[in-house]
Design goal:
Four copies of one chain form a homotetramer. The first copy, chain A, has eight helices and 17 strands. Chain A has about 325 residues and is of the alpha+beta class. Chains A and B meet through α5, α6, α7, β9 and β16 of A and α2, β1, α4, β3 and α7 of B. Chains A, B, C, D: One of its GO terms (biological process) is regulation of monoatomic ion transmembrane transport.
Amino acid sequence: MNPNPTKRRLFNKAPKSSQLVEQEERRSDLGFGTKLTDSSSRLVNQNGTINIARVNGTLWDRLNIYNRLITMSWVHFFFWLLAAYVFTNTLFAGIYMLADARTLIGIDDKILNGPFWKCFFFSSQTLTTVGYGHISPNSFLTSSIAAFESMIGLLAFALATGLLYGRFSRPVAHIRFSRQSVFAPYLDVNAWMFRLINTRDNQLVNLEITVSMSRLEPKPDGTLYRRYYGLNLERNKVAFFPANWTLVHPITEKSPLYGCTPEELEQSDAEFLISLQALDDTFVQSVHTRFSYRYDEILWGHKFRPIYIDDQQTKIDLNKLDETEEVELN
Amino acid sequence: MNPNPTKRRLFNKAPKSSQLVEQEERRSDLGFGTKLTDSSSRLVNQNGTINIARVNGTLWDRLNIYNRLITMSWVHFFFWLLAAYVFTNTLFAGIYMLADARTLIGIDDKILNGPFWKCFFFSSQTLTTVGYGHISPNSFLTSSIAAFESMIGLLAFALATGLLYGRFSRPVAHIRFSRQSVFAPYLDVNAWMFRLINTRDNQLVNLEITVSMSRLEPKPDGTLYRRYYGLNLERNKVAFFPANWTLVHPITEKSPLYGCTPEELEQSDAEFLISLQALDDTFVQSVHTRFSYRYDEILWGHKFRPIYIDDQQTKIDLNKLDETEEVELN
Amino acid sequence: MNPNPTKRRLFNKAPKSSQLVEQEERRSDLGFGTKLTDSSSRLVNQNGTINIARVNGTLWDRLNIYNRLITMSWVHFFFWLLAAYVFTNTLFAGIYMLADARTLIGIDDKILNGPFWKCFFFSSQTLTTVGYGHISPNSFLTSSIAAFESMIGLLAFALATGLLYGRFSRPVAHIRFSRQSVFAPYLDVNAWMFRLINTRDNQLVNLEITVSMSRLEPKPDGTLYRRYYGLNLERNKVAFFPANWTLVHPITEKSPLYGCTPEELEQSDAEFLISLQALDDTFVQSVHTRFSYRYDEILWGHKFRPIYIDDQQTKIDLNKLDETEEVELN
Amino acid sequence: MNPNPTKRRLFNKAPKSSQLVEQEERRSDLGFGTKLTDSSSRLVNQNGTINIARVNGTLWDRLNIYNRLITMSWVHFFFWLLAAYVFTNTLFAGIYMLADARTLIGIDDKILNGPFWKCFFFSSQTLTTVGYGHISPNSFLTSSIAAFESMIGLLAFALATGLLYGRFSRPVAHIRFSRQSVFAPYLDVNAWMFRLINTRDNQLVNLEITVSMSRLEPKPDGTLYRRYYGLNLERNKVAFFPANWTLVHPITEKSPLYGCTPEELEQSDAEFLISLQALDDTFVQSVHTRFSYRYDEILWGHKFRPIYIDDQQTKIDLNKLDETEEVELN
């Protein structure tokens, strides 16, 4: 996407070039820098991650094992646990076969479909320390391997214990943002709005939200650069978050969105970056989350419909989070 | 409870309608909003939870398993653990029965009241990895099931380990609020007071308390809305919390309670919202708690009696927390 | 200790009685209150706990099990673990005896000194899930008890896991305060000083210390009350805490210690309350600790000797922490 | 390194001797003090530790077991685990030999290379609670030892569980600093710069960096003392840390580096101390790290080359972190 004459006239404020202004702007760029002019991807993904790829990291850094095991889905997590269990047993079964399967005595190989499976089940009984004893090591070598395997087994399950606890106790805000943000009338002006709900019964307190807008703007020489604006919210803090909250950025003359058209937002690759921080009261854990709306996730002339059920003020229907209706803008 | 002419005259300050004032008020509504005019329920329950119901959450969100298992009582917790243990053993006993109970060898079925119970006890010995071996799997199929079950068993107890640790290490303020708050004389005015004690030997430091009052007030058009006031405390922070603390809101002319009668508090569905934050010194954990007093939890013309035992200044009788005596108001 | 005429004249500043002053003073009383006039005990013990006893707490609150098990010494901890292990095995041995010791088969009673010890060892093998199987339950009843015991065993050791982790990971500042504080010359005045060392290789950063002095002072009517003063330190924050730090309160005209004699400090039951907060860098844990010096833990006309070894600026001898030498005061 | 006439003239600002200035300077010495004039060692090592040795600590403090086991490398950690496992089994094997190896029955000694190894393997089966039962204790004494050993075993592996979890969940910033810092042109002046990258996919937010310079300066009487300066950064905070960040200290007239030559930096034993703090978003953990550049880790007249791959702004090559190219200084 190259700069073109049309776009250069889009913005009513002429880009300033003084170094002071430049430094001031860098303060609000959140760390992304002004050179990200590729409009094919967003800065912040809707799951809160950032769009940066790393090359040539060390294997250890790339694997980032603990982090992955903690953040992957439960289905994946149990799949990998089971896979590791089967793999380890297969590995040790192979080692017992090499050592001498005949020294694992107490049961007839044929009953368990041959010596490999006898070794496999003996391995599983050793790894989990269940140790029935109907198969037992009857030589120095297999006894040694079994002594080592039982230690490995305990460590592996020690690790699983830590991972399960880490997954459960990890501070995650169970917050859902509305899929679309809206431009709706607000008092005697218009406003850009989005809303969010707490999907769980956990008490969230001391919520605080900051919103920035990022868009491409042309420099005097015609090259594009990415500029960032902090957006003022009608309210950016609440002490309690009973259930839902609509965030409102009124589009007054001071707003960078003042006089903006949907086409301009698209041409300038506009993205709204949201950063939320709160306190989960159950464990008094701080929870952080990020979200973003791009220009194509805005409904113009829509407003959110009430989320309460039949005027019962203390009953909230989570399914109504995304419900909007058309409304005439001011 | 509908607005009526009498109530509209209750408050000496006329409700203001300017948008500026409205925004200012929203700052102090704590996130509850001004539309909660249903006076049949309180905003904050005395256990610190908030009175909001959710509908249509996902099953996962509604179960909120970890949170529940952490916050339920110990009796419930152990009941569910035992229930899960019996259920899992019954399930696996059924599976062994399907596979072929006769391949679990080593003991006569009759001694254990038939093949089901043999399977059940074998399952329990596998799940807990005790594995005596006097019952042992003697086929490929039952060996496989047992290998899987022992893995599940270890994971389940890994989970239990995490849950037990989570329950114990969860930051909870062992603070008890007096059941009633009082209106008592204070210096040359009156004051609304409540007190609290630290029921445990844990050191709590850096306590900070904020108190808000919420009540229904009529708008100029007669409809009711909920208004919130921050209440000034004679003191809202202490560095140490040796044992007890009486919080005092003096009712000066600036107080929203100035000139209020018990009847007015009831008619306006008044509720006092208390938010406490402190540092538990044992684990240097931040602890948060909430509490609320409604209009019917206030004793007019009562004062708290000393909580010390026989003038021994360093001995506190926790049973005296709620003791008050009548006193004439200023 | 009753007020007497001599003491009333001790302090050059007349106690003020205005309510404003009283409220201001309450701000600096740290939460102890002004009524603790019993001079037989200190406010803060040197291990950081506070001198308050509770009466009539619930059993659960009084036991405060988790807190005790976490904070007791390692010797006590292992003693209680072992005691619990022996007690539980004895209990279950009794239960197996009641059920019928003869149904635990596989070994001759006589070899293990009779049926009770057979039951005891079977219990220990079940509780720890070692389950050799050379003793095994051979009836429905003993099998059921064993199934229950093995579950209890796993939970108990799950608990032990959590306790061990809790003990190790608990944030504790390994800081040692000098046993005595000193009054030593400082620049052209005198100063009250104490020092502290980091006894471990853990990096402590962002240390911050606050010091208060508390003493009894007479009111105009002759009754004693406890007054608190914040003491200004020449420096109360450091970003790094390489090894040792001497804290200095210069006794200028503004200091409440100005013109004080050792006898006056004793008569007024003076106590210096120290509160320290830092960040342990290994786990990025906040650590808090308290300490106090009473009037009889001050050396007048002493100064601390260097703690470095033979002028090697980067080698610190922890044994020299308490070394002082006499010096003439200004 | 003794003060010499040449060095005394090095600095254009005369050292001031007023006590006020001295106190002001102590504020910025970070806690190191001004007496560390030994130029053979750095203050802060590049792994973030501080150069201080302790003598005469208690054994417990010197071992600092938990801290070491948590911070040592994984290879060392597993080596020590294995060593402890073999040692404990050897110890208990010896105890069983003393008690009477013949009472461990069920297998022929010769198969396992004699009674010691029989005891050793029985010990390992007891310690890990695998308990096959093909070796079992057949006397009161060995049964008692085994009951004790199985308890010890469970505790030891409980400890290992905690250690593994502690190692994994410990907050560590996976940040790599450029090996060299550079002096490069910046706008119309020069600047001292370094850069850093986030080597993992963990989201780091709210980064904040402070930089100090420390160097030896002569007092009027010719003795050297260590002086500290805070360095102003063009920017010291970012809300997001997508991947890389170049820190810039512009050398204006106010900078203590103004007019400095490489020789002067070397003669004054200059060291740049960096302290970084951020929030790891996965566990919402605060992470802290320190780094330092000495005078011999500065490249004069070099600038960093871009770290992006082929102008793809969202792809970062971690190997390019240290790449610089020569450039003419202003």
